[in-house]
Amino acid sequence: MAAGAEAQPVGNDRPVIEAVRIETPPRVDGVLDEPFWDRIPPVTGFRQRDPVDGAPASERTEVRIAFDEQALYFGFLFFDSEPDRIRRSILHRGGRIDKDDRVIIGLDTYRDRRNAYIFEVGAPGTQDDALLADERLDREDWNWDGVFTTETRVTPDGWVLEMRIPFTTIRFADVESPVMGIAFSRSIRRKNETVTWPHIGQDYRSGIAQVSQYADLVGLTGIRRGRRVEVRPYGLVGTQRFAGDGSFTGQTTGGADLKYGITPNLTLDLTWNTDFAQVESDNVQINLTRFNLFYPEKREFFLERAGLFQFGDPGNTAVFFSRRVGLETDIQGGGRLTGQVGRISVGALALRTEKGEEGLPSAWNSVGRVQMNLSERATAGVIGTSLDRADGRSSRAAGADVVTRFWSSSSFRMWGARLWESEADGAEGGGSGWNAGAGAARLNLENDRYGVLLNRTVVGKDFEPALGFARRRDMDRWYGSAVFQPRFESSRWARRLSVRGSGGTTRGTGGELQSRELSANTSFRLESGDWMYIVGRDRFERLHEPASISGRALSPGDYEFRSWEAGALSNDSRKFSGRVSVSGGEFWGGEQTGVGAGFTLITGPHLTVGAQMSRRNISLPAADGDFTATLFGLNLDGAVSRKLFASALIQWDDDSKELQANIRVDWIHTPGSDLFVVLDTGYLTDGDLDPRIERWTRRTGVVKLTWLRTF
pTM for the whole thing? Predict the structure, then answer.
């Protein structure tokens, strides 16, 4: 047998499940009536994670795994003593499936004990999926869409799931008999019960994301591998009109994405005439701070293996932030290479952006990332980014990071980065910071009951990466927190108490005090799934120069203010759920009070209605310092089936006084292929507006068809 083609070793200290080879694939219809299902020994023995850690599951679960050359097949039997109470109300792909009874499959295909594919299926057969990196599963990770097939059926004994995951959807080790990590997590929603196999206890706070605790999946031989080509062309027609335009402007265009498996471990993605018309609008945020807001990435091209490109502190200081690419000018095309080479994860991205208005030159946006497994739970890596403009100017960044995870949920992370720029004549230095740099170190000690965090972040005055995000610059910040969170496993009404205290001090890089904060947070979760919280804060801010809060100028000086917030939320898996919050206290030398409320009504699997409101009354010691910050939102989710669904987001705020509506219809006509219809509008509601000013800020309508072909 050639080198690199041997079977991977199996650890003796982990549970093992064997996949059984079949000759004829099953019909995925939610009925396990093929004879081979009865011959496969099931995985059983699920144990509770909640409410009683380690206790036997209250309802029995059986899992059987089969495979052929093309795909993995799963047969689940979820026994339930009250099948009429199984919750199954979500039909949207990628929706809030956690409101229903569901199962999550974690698949560590490279068995590196830190990265995994996540496949989530609700009781109606609804799908969602994610790519997690470094045992962290963030909200943005769920935006990845893989191709797999599911069908479910409710029976007098519970519910059944039959599932097919093509080997072309996942990447895995280039060996004859790959061994993968695997774990299952089942939620019985009416009981707020979560059970897992293998057991991942509460000491492991990340739950199904704790890839180091997965069992071993063995028996996979003779499966499809090698090179493959996946083409996804699109066609788009639309029209739009912005304020000041004389008429509507039509648009007809097309483009394509291509995925090519260079090797079983390396994938090349190419894009031409990239379009993001199916992306929904961002939620409105009213900025009551003196720093920039962070909007997460939602564009599909950037989402697969997005965790590999993460570097720094996402949302605060990031060396690469993909939303900077194509923010001001359109993307012509480019490519991305991602994959695994032995113990090394690699990622490279290069995109060409067009020449923009106001003299913005065309540019190449490039990123390179390498991350090595030092051990099962430790990695080290480097990153480099470059924005190369057509006029000869360039902006570059380079950094290195190390992450180690130990004990159950503890970790240590450290990163550092530097920037430099080149002017058109090639001279380096000057301008925006030849010596600009940033870095952080974070120690987190955590188990089921206790947690201690210590973090230091330093960001230079001129640290503003051209392809990154820096919310706050010129700072040297120390931050720490401690938490005590006992659980009440013998109680019939109480689930968990959390008491957290935290504090931090921020100075400028020259040593001058900028801010200081202390906070105490207590939350209490009930067995019913309802919970409540109260937070108290004490802040000190020193302004060395004038600043602006929502357009109101604040004078330099010292500001010290105390505030509080309290709220309660009901279990959002119920047909009707709600939330309410109140706040008050001092605010930048003045005062503020606030109230927030919202509700969600699940009328059934075909319509969910949600509404939310927040209002803050602000009084600042500044010109026009008395004002309100009010935001209303309405969410409508409708579905005809798991293949045809729509969502609408309607928002209004009294800062912009703009009524915004975004409606998106999605028909999945074949797996991996969609027909999108998107309507997006904005209308100014200000009654004092000059009648000569057009009230419509934008009106856009788009129809986009995508088609996935695999060779």
Answer: 0.89
